[in-house]
Amino acid sequence: MTKSKLDDRVKLIAKRAKEDGVIVYAIQFAENNSTQIALMKEIASGPGTPYYQYAPNADALKDAFVEIGNHLSKLRLSK
Fold this sequence. Notes:
The chain is mostly helical. It has one domain (3-78). Helix content is 61%, strand content 10%. The chain has helices at residues 3-19, 34-43, 58-78, and strands at 26-29, 52-55. The chain has a two-stranded parallel ribbon with strand order 1-2. The radius of gyration is 13 Å and the shape is flat.
């Protein structure tokens, strides 16, 4: 399967999940190119923090998971 077909499949799966009410978080780790950024932002539930995050290194990756955890905690408290 080509990269383009894989990307299309990921987009479709994410779209269906979001339509079913699933919150999708996407963390882009290390790889920083415009094609990958666009894909990750599209599959995430929103184009910015906390749904899409870029983590250029391990410390930023840990921070991204902490931020997502905090966001999930707030969501649970509000329900």
